[in-house]
Each structure stands twice: as C-alpha cells, then as structure tokens.
Structures
1.
Amino acid sequence: MGNAQEVSAAGNDNGIESRIRDLLERMTLEQKIGQLNQVQAWGDNIVESLAPAIRAGRVGSVINIVDPNVINALQHIAVHESEHGIPLLIARDVIHGYHTVAPLPIGQAASWNPEVVRACARLSAQEASAFGVNWTFAPMIDISRDPRWGRIAESLGEDPYLTGVLGAAMVEGFQVSETGGADTLVACAKHFAGYGASEAGRDYNTTNIPENELRNVYLPPFFAAVEAGVGTFMTSFSDIDGIPATASDFLLDQVLRKEWSFDGAVVSDWDSIHQLVVHGFSENDVEATYEAATAGVEIDMIGGVYERHLPELVHQGRVSMQRVDELVGNVLRVKFRAGLMDRDVTELPSVPPRMTALNMAREAAEQSLVLLRNEHGTLPLNAETLSSIAVIGPLADEPAEQLGTWVFDGDAERSVTPLAALNSMLEGTVEIRHVRGLETTRSKDKGGFDEALCAAEQSDAVVLFIGEEAILSGEAHCRADITLPGVQEDLIRHLRSAGKPVIGVVLAGRPLALGGIIDGFDALIYAWHPGTMGGPAIADTLFGRVVPSGKLPVSFPTMSGQVPIYYGYKQTGRPATPDTVIHIDEIPAAATQTSLGMTTFHLDAGYEPLFPFGFGLSYTDFAYTDLALDRHHIRMGESVVAEITLTNSGAVAGAEVVQLYIRDRFASLTRPIRELKRFERVTLEPGESRRVRFELHTDDLAFFRRNKTYGAEPGAFDLWIGGDSTTDLGTEFHIDA
Ligand code: GLC
C-alpha cells in the first residue's frame, strides 16, 4: 500500500527527478508556463474549445469538468497530441464525498475518528477518480473559531491537534490506495494560511495574526498534512498582516519550502493572483504575477495571468528561467508521484459498489451525531411503548439540504431523509404525523404553526427537524446573528404548549447560538449536515439502535456576541471564574459605576460556552478513575505515560472519546489554559472497564517560543483526562531543567 505522493521509503524518487530534469530541458518556455496554467470550460464544446491550447502544451490542469468522456478526450489530446504528452491534472472540489456524500467535514470531525475520516476520503477518491477526477481541493484545515464564518462547515474545527490528526487522515484517504494509485486523488491542504481568522467572521475579510499565534494555532495542521505526504497546497484569499497569502514569501517560501521542505505544488485560490491587484497590493496583473511567482505559487487557478504575463517577466529577467523550472518541476513532481505519467489516465478505475459507499456514509453519519441534551432520559425513544410521533420542521424531508455545502456532484436522489427513514423504521408500529410547519428555516410565516401544534397534541412525542439549509453556510455564506434563522425559536415555544416531549434535531453547517431556546428541548441531537445517509443515522439514534458517540469539535456559544469562543483561550491577568461573574439581571437597581466583577466576562453571557469543545452525551454513562502517571518529573527528550481506567457504568454498550489535555503553567509566552494532546475512541460493553494509556514526549509540548524557536520549556504542567475539555480529573508533572 503506498501513498501516491510519497517518495519511496528508501528516499529515492524512482528516477522522478532525472525525468523532471529531462522534460524541462526539452520544454519551451510556453510549454513550461502551460503547466502552471489551470483553466475552466463549460458548455457543449469543451473539447473543441480547449483542444488547441492543450495540444500546444499551454494547459497543465483543468477545473470543474466532470464528464468522464470529456475528461478522457482532453487527456487523450494532452498525452497523444501534444509534444511532451504530459497528462492533465483534473481538479474538483471533492470535499466530503462525490456522488455519495459523507457528513460535512465539521460533522466528520465530531466523530473524533481518524479511521472514519480516512474511509470517507477513500470512498470519495474511488468515486471521483472513476469519473476522471485526479485532484481534489481538500482537506480544508483552517482552524475555525468563529461560527459566523460560513466556511466553518468545511473545517475540522477549532483545535490544532484534532484538525491535524483528522486532516492527515483525510490526506491519506485521498492519496493512499491498495490498488496502486488509479483510484487516488492528489490532496490539497487549504487555505494556507489563517483564513479562519477572517475578521468579524466575514468571508475573504482581512486577517491579522501575530506570528506566535500563527505558528502555534493555524500552521500545525498544515505541517501535519505535509508529514502525511499531501501533494499540493492552496493559498488563502485573505491577506495576513497586510500581505495577501498568495504573495506571502514568508508562508510560501520561508515556512513551506525552507522550514517544512515541502516539494509539491501550490495552487492559488480562484483568481487570487489577479486579486492581489484588488487587494491594493499589486499595481497591475504583471506585478501580481511577479509577486506570486516569486513567493512560490505554482499554478494560477483560472486567472490566466501566468499565461499572459510570465513570458514578459522572464524576457525582462525579473523572473529567471531557473525560477520557472523550479515552479514547473514542482508541478511535474506532483504528476509523477500521482502516477499520471506512468499509466493510461484514460483507463478509469471502476466505480466502488454503491452499497459500500452508502454504508460508509451511514457509519460516518452515525458517529458524527452529537447528543447535546437529554433531560430525564427522553431519548432513546421506545417504539414498543410509543403509539405516535409528530415529525415537524422544514428539514425533516430535504434530500439535498441534508448533504450540506460543497456538494457539486452530490446525488440527492440517493439521500435517505430522516422522514423517509422513520417511515421505513416505524411502519406498522408507530404512527407518524408529519407537518412541515415552516416553508424554510428562514421563513417568517407562522401560518403552519397551528397545524404543527395539532399534530403535537395528538402524538406522544415531537421530533423537530430545524436548523439551517445548506445555503446558509459554506463559502461567502456568513451570518452575524447565529441563532436559529427565521421564527424557528417561536415554533419550538409554540410546540411546547402541547405538553409533549420535544426532541430537537438540528441540521446546520455551523454551531448555532441556542442559549435562548435550549430549554425548549427535552433532548437535542446536533446532526450538522449529515450527508446522504443522514436519515437512517438519525432515526437509528433516536430509537436507540445506535448509541450516540459524537463529541464537539467546536465550542458552542450561548449567544452570537460571544464569538470567537474556544476552549484553548489564554488565562489573561484577570481570569473569570464562576464566583467573579455578575449577570446583568443581578445588578442591583442602585448599582453605581462601581467595580463589577473585574474579570474577563460578558455581563449578559458570562464567559463559558453553552456546550464546550469535546462535549457529547451518550445513552450510557462512563466513569473515569485511577488517573496515574508513571512519573511526575521528566527531562527534555523524555516521555511521561498517563493512564486512566474507563468504565461503562451504564446499561448499554457505547463508545467514548477519551481526551487528554495539558496546560503549560508558565512559559516564555502566555499559553492556552488547556491544549488537547491525545484522544482515543473506546467502545465498552455495560460494566466493562479498560485501562487507557497515553504517552507524551517533551516534543509534544513544544511550541513557538518568545525567542522565535520551537521547543518545550522546563516547568510545571497540568494534565487532565476526561470526556470533554472541562474535565477536572487532573494531575501534574514537571519538565526539569
Ligand atoms: C473557491 C474556494 C476554494 C475552492 C476553489 C475551487 O473559491 O475558496 O476552497 O477549492 O475556489 O473551487
């Protein structure tokens, strides 16, 4: 089994470097620049429109062409009708599935299961490569701590360690194949870097990230992707500290090439080389081309500026032919490592069995669901004692909406909706009264409320499918108020008057601010956008055939004004504690401008999230006991072993994600109050116990320090283990100088 991008274990490159040099010696400047040129085309005459340029070697990759017959025709021209026969990179955003759609990446992250994430990427690669695609623009590993930002949906959450582990698994899923590579996709780590810090959660907005924050929070997942062998990177649209990422020699040369020794290819985001002009950073496209080529962008995504302006820059001597050869060599290396140069790229692998894909999508959806609330054991529902349920809400039966954002090729006809799954599961046993109640989640028309209430009154329980449609998250789809859109909160309150249990199932692409309505739910399952098989996963979880195991990869704010909110915050000089918080409603009428609290909190929201990072309930209970370290003092270069006993103290089998957090108490820079450093998913039968073991090396405690070097520092550390980021089951250890 090999990673199609990895150089062979012996470190030799199977002669790739000599083959690259040989090609470069024979290519004209126009043909070299062609490898840096990515084009798109649409309509009925794609082949005719692109044939001349491909035949002349002026195109190295295409994007958003998905007809396998057209792709094969274009590849045939590239391989058999051009001088050097270099195949095309066929690019597509295969983000969380192709025709069969897995949960959103933020949902997959809630599984905390690298094997599930890897398997979803593997199936996506098998489906997409069967239709000619060979390059995907995933994983998106932007640390996302502001749920106003629509692209949190395609992220793996707020934490650098979790995002790094799962992002690496996604890279391997796309690129590693048991069958030698034809069913792989070249992966792309994006968006490099710091895109998730877009100011105010508005997409494409400016970012300002101090180097220590950039290196300790935003860059680690990208380094993990490099270590996983990712073939390509994509630059971010955003500027960072005044320099657009697409022109940042600090990011693209200093960090990516010099420090990380990345030798794949970097693609600009959509037209973002030209956008250097729009940023007001470059005077014109010629200067933008110079900046990007000098900083280290290999491929110009659909902008055409490299094709138009690189020749003159080379003739002027502003960009050397050596620099062009470096850029082109990186692109050719990607094609060689992907096996494109050594196989018939028109021989497409077979489509994986649909049931295999559906079963994987279902397993991923099951593990992505997070049980956030379950008052009085409302869930699981019991089909033997229930006679009827009211299934209400605008998202109970929306096969396309449940797929979520970034599903250009998703086949909504394959979707099994929650309503369909419940009808199938409960046929002949439990009556279902289905009332939509609202046209969309954004509707303001309450005309369907009474019919919904009537159904609730006639039923034993209410299952309410609410949230956001897919269009309300994803690229460019940001919200300033991240409560439930429209009048959904009013619908919940209206239904409560029926006096029946109300079970909420939220489908959304972001954490929503549910603080104002959380008490309206007796139970609450967060389903994200769960993909093709979201329906069966939700139905099985509602009725206990599946025991929920998901854990939050992002913190949930109580209200929109709390964001950005995340668990790994800094202590500050005036940390808030429960006893220092004063709530606005508790301020006495006679209060004067006295000292209120004097710690870091909001008068109307406190300082804690509604639900913390790592949180998720189960239908069983887990007990953590006997936390022990093998020693409490280690030296630099040594490891400490932490062990805990996990017991399933409940009545049903279940899976728990055991999480290990540390805190570096005193350091040359202020450090987060908690940092996730290990986690493990453990499945236990009722009454079963298991000793869970984690090893931490001092390298795991390294960070970018005040002296601008990486390393751990001597001193005291807290260590906690538990079922979420608020666990107080802790101990301590020291790195001795
Ligand atoms: C988009 C996105 C990027 C995507 C690219 C190609 O604008 O920013 O994530 O891969 O263009 O579709």
2.
Amino acid sequence: MKNLFVATGIVCGLVLLAAAPAGARVVEPGTIWRDTNGQIINAHGGGMLFHEGIYYWYGEFKEGLTYLPKVNKAWGGTRVIAGGVSCYSSTDLVTWKNEGLALPSNAQDPDHDLAAENVIERPKVIYNVRTKKFVMWFHQDSPNYAAARSGVAVSDTPAGPFKYLGSFRPNAGARPLNATEEDLKPSPRNLLARDLEGGQMARDMTVFVDDDGTAYQFYASESNQTMHVSQLSDDYLRPAGKYARIHIGKAWEAPAIFKHNGKYYMIGSGTTGWDPNPGRSAVADSIFGPWRELGNPCQGPGAELTFGCQSNYVLPVAGRPGRFIAMFDRWNKWNLQDSLYVWLPVEFDAEGKLLVSWQYRWTLPE
Ligand code: GAL
C-alpha cells in the first residue's frame, strides 16, 4: 500500500513538472502569495502600471482587526483601518518586491481625508507622458461610506511617495453627455439631478488610458446604481467635465477596463459588499457607450459567484497583444487582511464574449 502511495506521489509530481517547465512563471489563484522578503503581499482592490519594463502593483494596505464601525448611529459596513496604498514591483509578474507605502494614511489628524478611520480603496495609478507624472486615483470615503468621493495624488516616480492633492465628488456643474431633460428633472429620488451642482457620488472606481493618451475614470455613482465614464483633464488630475451614464440603474461596481481590437471591455460585479456575486462583463465601440452586456464571463467550478471573488483590474500582458489577465480579490469579510488574490487569463469566444475559466494553476505567457 505504502508503495502505491509513493508511486502515485511520483506520478503526480512528474505530471506537475511536465505541466510547468523549468523557469515557467506559475500562478496559483487563491493561494498565499509572498513577496521577495517572504511577507504576504498586502495590496487589495489593486491596480497595475507597466512602466519601463517594470510592473507596479498598487493596492489597499489592510492590516489589523476587521470591525464594524458605527458612525452617526448607522453601521458603516465591516472594514479595517485604512493603511494607505502599498506598492510592489516585478519584472516577471510572479516575483514581487515590496516598495513600501506609495501613499500612507494619516494616523495623526482624524480630520484629514487620509485619516486611518476613513476609507482608501481601489487605488489605480496611470502615467502621464506629457507631464511625466504618475497620477493616483482612488475611492476616498468617510467611515460610513457616505462621502463617496475620489482622491487624487501625484508623484515623479512610480513607487512614490505620492503627494496627496485632495478629494472631490467628480463633475460638479457638468451635465452627462447622454442625459435627457427627464433624467435631469429634480425629484427626491433623482440623485443625478441632486448632485449636478456639488458633484456626483463616486465609490468603486478605476482609471483607464486610451491609445491617444486620453484618460477616463469609471466610478459607481448615484448611490451605486449607475456607473459614470468621465474623461480626465490633459494632466489627469481632475475631471474634464465630459461624462456619460452607463449601466443605468443596473448597480455595477468593481469596474476593470481594457481595450482589444478597437473595442472597450469591462469586467465588473454587482453590489453585495464583500460578499461575492455573479461576475459581469460588457463591450462598447465608444468608451462613452452604449455598453452591451456580455454576461458573467466566469466558467468552471464556482463561476456563478465569481469563484468567491470580486474584480479589481484587467492587465494587458506587456509585449503580448491579445493576452490579458483578469485580477480579482477573494475577500475574507471576517478578516479582511487575509483576503487573497485570484488572477486568471482572459479569453474571447467565437462570438466575442469574454471567458475567464477557473484554473488551480496556470503558466504566464512567455
Ligand atoms: C464593495 C466594494 C469594495 C468595498 C466593499 C465595502 O461593494 O466593491 O471595494 O467598498 O464594498 O463593503
């Protein structure tokens, strides 16, 4: 019997070896991932930047107890103290060096936007070739997520430290490109009309740079019911005032955008907090829409709940046109600092729909 186990072990080992040739860059979704110091990578709700041959992974630094803050008599949703934005660097996408905090939170001043009691989520960094600045956008919020703002920071170097510029609700004083008079009619439930002057609510978000260098922010707005696509100013530091409403009333969040063969693609989720829900995807010929829904891209065991995950970013693999990696967080809502990362390749089926298939282990393209 013992021999049988040994023989089976050897065969399994050989099969794995055969599947992953020496030097292959192997990804094991949902397993503990350590940096070059042996520490667990702490970069949740993250985003990637590829700059001069190096990938930078930015994310929420989550450390400490998961708790349920009660603010103004309302429960705020479970979370950890905001630790700031972490940054890791890599040339191969599997070996990650900790670059420290690109934007620390502010432990001293409880009234500061970046106070540890507040929310710093879904950071994304883009590089502006004109100004030569690295620009970070993220979801900035109050402890009970009522502020719903976007924060912006800037740096001369990719790993920072970034200089915090401030936060705002985007597009104050601007009308959406596709809003009808009816859409703008004030009523107690019309959040778009209510916020026209002061700026639109913005929670889950991402930023995307198009081929012509124009950048866009996508944010969950109108109390997470409708998403906005908002063009940024040439320096990427603020909204340009040109924006459209998409997925109207569909409650999309966790947007991740990429472009392939001239079309814009989005992977996202529904709004169930840290709990997983069925993934969503969509395609558009113009970034301002219309966006056509393509359904849940996930395939295989656990696909109906996005493998227990929520989307955060889609990375185009450098030098490999048509290769994309979909990046997800597997949130552990009972202990958020233990949340894991799930990366899977994106494929396109014959009808142009997106497919993200579950794999326990896969190899990055050479
Ligand atoms: C999710 C969102 C996360 C975080 C969480 C808080 O809906 O995608 O980024 O904000 O809610 O409950």
3.
Amino acid sequence: MAYQPNNIFARILEGEIPCEKVYEDDYALAFRDINPKAPVHVLVIPKGEYTTLDEFAGAAPAELMAGFFRAFAEVVALLGIAESGYRTIVNTGRDGGQEVAHLHFHVLAGRPIGRMVGRE
Ligand code: 5GP
C-alpha cells in the first residue's frame, strides 16, 4: 500500500496535531488512542514511512526495526502492564480494518481484553 504522507499519524509525528504522548525516542512515538477501547489503549508507531507491518518487516532498516521494538518494550514497562498482560493489535488494509495508513501497534490493557477477534 503506498504511503500517504498526509495521514493523521504522520501529522502527529510532525507535531502538527497534538497527542497525549507516552514515550518517544529516535525510532518510535507512543501516544494514547483518542477513542480508547480499554482502560489502557496506546498506539506505538515507528518513525518511518511504512503503512503496514509487512512493509516494515520487509523493508525497514535493521536499526529502525530494532529501535522500534525496543521502544515497544519501553512503552510496556512504562505502562506497568507486563505482569497483568495486554493485547497487541496491528490492523492491516481493508480486511484488517486499518483506518490510519501509518503502521501502528495498538496496546490494550487494564482489564481482561477477551478472546481473539470479533465479527461486526
Ligand atoms: P486502525 O483502525 O487504523 O487500526 O486504528 C486507528 C486508531 O487511531 C483508532 O483506534 C482511532 O481511535 C485512533 N485515532 C484516529 N485519529 C486519532 C487522532 O487524531 N489521535 C489519536 N490519539 N488517535 C487517533
């Protein structure tokens, strides 16, 4: 999927749109979802122009990939959810229900999140 540079998360990365920041470093930004689906609902996004996880995994420089996943670990530690657990969701494309065309990892926690996926 071609990256759309004007997507809302790109604008958050540029500082054009505010966010409730949880963590930031050279590789990633984490912020609270504007429409939380659980007591903890954070989005972790890489600092790179990738729309999907397969594009990121297939093409991102190793330093960015490692940095992103290290940042993910920092976010989980900061949120204090490693012990209680959490759900990670990466929606991709049409059938995956992706609304924002910049790769993002949802981190949901703070209550039992339920079993796997629903059908709407
Ligand atoms: P997707 O369906 O693409 O996986 O999820 C997009 C997520 O981004 C949704 O959970 C939605 O609530 C969140 N979102 C959309 N616009 C904004 C925004 O401007 N700020 C924040 N913090 N979250 C947003």
4.
Amino acid sequence: MNAAKGQSTKLDAKLFDDVPVLRRKWQAALKPGETLPRYENVLLGSLGRLADHLVLLKCDNGAFAVSRTGRYAQNWLGDARWNIPMDALRPDCATVLSEAVSNAIANNRPYLAAAHCVRAGMVRTYDVLALPTFSRWGGTLVGAYVNERGTEFNLIDAIFCTTDDGVVSLSALRDPTGRPLDFQVVHHNQAAVKLLDVAEHSLLWQRLSNSDHLLCSQEVVGRLRAAVTNDQSDQFEIEDDNRSLRLGVSAFGNIVSLVISDVTSLKRRDASFRLLFDSNPMPMWAFDAETMDFVRVNDAAVQHYGYARETFLRMKVQEIWPKDEQVGYTRALRDAGDIYQSEHPWRHVKADGSEICVLTFGRRLIIEGREGYLVVVFDITERRKAEARIAHMALHDGLTNLANRALHRERLGDALENGNAAGKHVAVLCIDLDLFKNVNDSFGHAMGDHLLEQVADRLRSRVAGNNLAARLGGDEFAVILTDDISPNRASDFAAELIRSLSAPYEIDGNQVVIGASVGIALSPGDGTSSEELMRNADMALYRAKEDGRGTHRFFEREMDYQAQRRRELELDLRRAFADSEFELHYQPLVDIASDKISGFEALLRWRHPEKGMISPAEFIPLAEEIGLIAPLGEWVLRDACNEAVKWPSEIKVAVNLSPAQFRSLHLVQVVISALANSGLAPKRLELEITESVFLAETEANLAILHQLRELGVSISLDDFGTGYSSLSYLRSFPFDKIKIDRSFVKDLAIRSDCGAIVRAISGLGRSLNITTTAEGVETTEQLDWLRAEGCNEVQGFLFSAARPAAEVGQLLLRFGARASKAA
Ligand code: C2E
Ligand code: CA
Ligand code: CA
C-alpha cells in the first residue's frame, strides 16, 4: 500500500515553543492559596504576537461563549465577530474548544487538545491550549491559544495514494463534430502505474492513441467514448495473459474517471471453483436454503441422477427424497449448521425411480447471490450391497445358501437364551448323509454338489418360521427347532426328514439314492449351552450311524460317558507313546509238518502304569482314528526287526499292518529302513494285512503291496473268513499266506460248515501255492482236525500265548525240535 505522503509547510520553529511558554506563564501567575491565577496576570499585556492566536471565552450562566478573538484565531474560526455563542461556531472548532475548556475548568489546570480541520481539501492539525483564569470583575475566563502544528495533508491525495485500486483521470478530445475521439491522461495515482504496468512518464499527459498499455485497446477506448457520449457510467473487465482487471468508468462532461481493480485472484478463485464444481466426478449441487430450489447442478449429478439439467434446475430438493423421509429429512436439514455431514446414509430417488443410498456433505454459502448449501454426494449403494453380500457370505454356505456353522451357532445361542428363560425346550438335530461319499467318489464332485443343493432344498422346505436349517460342512447338516418342541414331535420330525432325504434324487438324468442319520439333543435336559447341545446331538448321531444308519437317535447320558472315556483314552494313548509304555510280545507260529516253530507274530502290548496290560483290540482302533497308528506302527516294525535279527536265521517274524498305515506315503520307506537298520533279511519278515486294505484306494494300496513284495518281504492275508471274505482278493494279489480266522477254528469240532470252510481254504491255498495258517488253536483236537484238513501252520494258546521278547529263546528251546503240546 502506498504510504500517504504528507505535504508539510515549513513554519517558524519558535511557534512550537509557545505552548510551554504559556504553561510557565500560567504557573508563575498562580498565587499561593488560590486555585486559579488572575486573568490580568496571565492574559493581559506582554503577550505580543501570541495575542493574535487567542480565543477568550467567558462563562455566561454556566455556558461558555467567545468574547474576543485575535486575528489568527479569527482566521481559524472563519468568523471575525466577537461575543458569539459556542453553538454558532463551526462544528470542528466548537468541538475542540469545548473539549479543551471543560477539561481545563474541571481540573483547574491548563489543558492541551488537538484539532483536525479540513480547509480547502487540506487536512490541518491545530494545538488548542486552554488556560483557565479568574477575573476580579467576576466569573471564570479561559484563554484558548490556537496554533497550527505545522503538518498538513491533501485529503484527496491521501485517499488516492492509499488505495490499491488504480485511479486515472482522462480528458476527452473531441473531433470537429464534437464526438469524443481520443483521451489524454490528466491525473493518475501510483496504483494505476503498477496495475497498468507502465512507466510513469508514459502515462501522465499522454494520449491513449500514442501509448501502448492496457487502456489503449480498441475495446477500452470504445467503451470510454460511449461513456462520454452518453454521459454515463460503465463497468467491464479486461484481461492480459496473467491478469484480469475490472474497470469502472464515470464520465463528467469531458472528464472521465477510471477506477482499475485487480480481480485476477478473484477470477482464479472463481475459475477453480467452477473447475471443482462442474468437472467434479462426484455429484454436486447447490440449492437455495429457503426455497429449496436447485440453483446449480454439476455434470456428475445430472448423469448420476438421470434428470436433464433443465429439469433438475426446475426441481426442489424434496423431489429427490423418498416420500416416507420428507418430514425427517426436512427436519435434519433445518437443524444442519453451516457445515453438515450426514451421519447416516440418506436415500435419494433417481429419475428412473430407483433408490440410492448416499452420504452428503454440505456447506452453507452464498451461491449466485442466494443463501444456500453446496452439497457433495457420495453414492454408497454399491458399497452397501457389497457389505450386505459379505455379511451374508460370512453367515451362509456358498453352495447351498443355508446358514453356515457360525450363523447356526449364533441362532442356537439365541434360541437357547430365549428358551431357557421361558423354560421351553429347544431341539437340535445333527444330520449326516449316508452313502454320500459313494456318490462323490463314483459320480464326481460336481454331481456331489448338485446332490447337496437338492438336499438343502428338501431341508429348507421342511424348516420354517423361527427354525433354522444349516450346513455345517461336507455332508453334515443341522436343524434347530424352537417353539417348545416335545421329544415326540422332535422324533416325528426326524423320521419325516429321514424319509424325505432318502427319497430318490434326479441329478443330470441319473437317479441317486442316499440316506440320512439323525442325532437329536433337547434342551435343557441334554444341555443348556449351544456347545453342549451340539456335542450331544453329535454323539447321538454317531450312535444312529452305528445302529445301522437311516435312523434317528436321542442323546443319552451313557453316550456321554463313553465319549468321555474315549477322550481320556486318547490323551492317555498319546502320553503313553511319548513315555514308551508300549512293548512287543511274540506268539509262535508252528509248522504242522515239522512240528517246529517257523516264526513269531509280534503283538503289541500297552503296559499301563495303573491299569496294567491293555489289549491292542482296545486301543488300535483309537490309534488309527487319531493318526497315532503311523508312528506307532513304525515303532513296531523297527522293534520287531531289531528283535528278530537275534533269532536263528530260519525263524521269521510277522508284523501286523493297519490299513491306516497305507495312507501314509512312507510305508515302503519305513519297511526298507527297518530292515536296513536291523540287518534283517527281507525274506524273514512277514507283513499281515486284512481285507479292509482293499476297501478304499484299492489301486494305490495294491501298488504299495507289490513294492513291498518286491523287497522280498512276504505278505499274509489276516483274519480270513471274517469281513467280506471275497475270494476275489486272493486273485487280485499273490499272497504268500492266508491266516484262517480263529472263529472257524473254535467251532471246528461242532459245526460242519467250519470244517468245510477250512478245507476249502486249505485246498485253495494248496492249488495257488499259498501257505495256510490256522489261528486260535487251543486244543489238540483242533490241531488234529487242521492237520487232517491240510492246513500248513498253526498258532494258538495250545502252544503259547504271546510272550515277552526275553522268553523267545525258551520257546524256541521248547518247540525247537518237536512242537507238541505233550511237552
Ligand atoms: P490278530 O492279528 O488276529 O492277532 C491274533 C490275536 O489272537 C492276538 O490278540 C492273540 O493274542 C490272540 N490269540 C492267539 N492265540 C489265541 C488263542 O488260542 N485263543 C484266543 N482266544 N486268542 C488267541 P491280541 O494280541 O489281543 O491282538 C488283537 C489284535 O490286535 C490282533 O489280531 C491285531 O489285529 C491287532 N494287533 C496286535 N498287535 C498289532 C500291531 O502291532 N499292529 C497292528 N496294526 N495291529 C495289531
Ligand atoms: Ca495278525
Ligand atoms: Ca488274525
């Protein structure tokens, strides 16, 4: 900003000393004991030229009036009269005189005031010193000394210089017909020089036609001419590369006054606002806060909402609100402050009638001269849908769209909470599909999936209201029945369900039949928490499957007891393996022809610290189930080989293999390693397997058997005659030995069919060159029969039960030469 340039007049410096001189004179005239000095002593005589500057004021009935004035003072007052009342004086003089006089009287002291007066367009500052005195003739007399302080300002210049706006005065030069032709700059301020970016000398007194700056353009000159011709004002904007100037033109006769304002930043702000608004990808609009009319809408809003711009601009905000929200939204908007942000999503209606879900951000401001709101809209409809989808997915099964385990647990928890509180029963049914695995294995997973979808449909059609059907995984489903269900009704429901699920399915032109087993648990008797109830329903399901499938069972406490025992056993078993509580006992196999021990079968024993010896029949199935059989079986193999290598070289060792061991990919490797580490010749190792090895993964298991046999190890088929007893197994693999199950041996003497079977197997063995071994031989009678039927080998308590490794030597001594019970 230009500093105001004061135009000071040089004055006699002595005058500045008059104020202290007068103060001293007043003080000197003050006599002790008096409050004011006498008039005569201060203001009469010896004042010399100072008398010219005096205004003498006399108190008349409480009001002051001017009684006499000096020549200088008359000039200042603009009035040469004596004896005039204060209110007849010029206001600027009266104001300062009143201030000085009243202060001086009130304090009984001289008082100095300053006066600013405008004289001929100049601002002048005066000192006014009021000297209070008392007169012998009565009353108070105040002498006011007036003098100009010595600085003055040109008011117009001050205004001109201090404004940032450029001011240029031009005089019009007319042609002979009187029309304005050209213009000459007759006055300008500093700001004009700056704004027009010209040197001062090329502006003042120059004609526009001879100059070269922004005002010389045809457009500006044209508008100036028009203003002069019509004696009018005009306002317009001009621009160069980087600035925008607004010109205000006023013509008075031949003089044109031009005010130039820099509106560059204003224009830029306007341009960036337009850019931000018009090309914003977010829908935006402005609406009138009072009438609710849309005042402006951007392209994105037009596109997003589907209303043509003209339509939009004729609408009111309420028209995009759904009918049922009018009251609430109006209130919310009325309560909105200068800046608002919707806390909850709002619903808006598009031109096609569809609803969207939006968040809005608004700001109150003046738009196109109207109080209103500028609003930005975020459409969160898709996000909302996605969130809902994700929420649904988190609680539903992708294939069947039934509730998943999580939702099932949650709903069961809720149902129980309500049921427990109201003393009502809640039933949970665990459903397992029978034979589903077969469908999956033989028809493929795609077909399995179709089947599960149809199962889900049937479940859904039977489960209504507050009840819930869920898929817990694989072919496991569950149903929650609320509504104070009785055991009878739960039972009927389960039976119906099984019937429905067991009806044939039509899938891709194939007819498929499966069945279902159901376990039921009822609150509160079978449990009050969802975990407990589910666990018990699951146990009941297990029982239903054990009891032959296609049926339903209720949970019973006994099941719980068994399950608990099983859990304890499992923990115990794992611990036992870690603590090396297992050992191998050996039972001799005796060759009938030579009456000599041909080998020993290694049989696993668990020496439990508290329960004593535990039979493998009790823990092998569990070890298989929990996956402990692989490490346990490996240990058996190594231990048996390590033991057998100490025996005479013609004595073999037989080791039992569980079908579960075939699932481990390392079985062959484990056998090779056991042989290598012990140094046992492969031909001395017999591996006993049961028919169940052929029930699943037949091809892979056969391959493993062949690999084992290639090692030189022999393979025996154990427990023959139980299980499926399919002779086809004998054809599918070249077994070295068949072990006839002891159930046939037991009844040899009493049941003729047992004898026939033993005879048949022995005959088959002979013709296929397979050794036949009879298990469980307890009597000489049985031994005689077996010998007669053509069996090659026997094993049983008649000779010895399985004994610890340390006793093998003794057994060999006893049965080394002649194996006979008669020993
Ligand atoms: P298995 O392979 O049929 O073993 C023969 C079973 O019959 C043994 O029972 C044995 O003690 C018993 N036994 C032998 N002679 C007679 C007899 O004259 N009369 C009667 N009543 N029984 C006799 P154990 O030792 O209790 O083994 C039971 C089953 O446990 C075995 O049946 C076998 O399938 C399994 N097993 C034993 N050890 C192992 C092993 O190390 N691994 C695997 N996978 N299974 C094993
Ligand atoms: Ca065996
Ligand atoms: Ca057996």
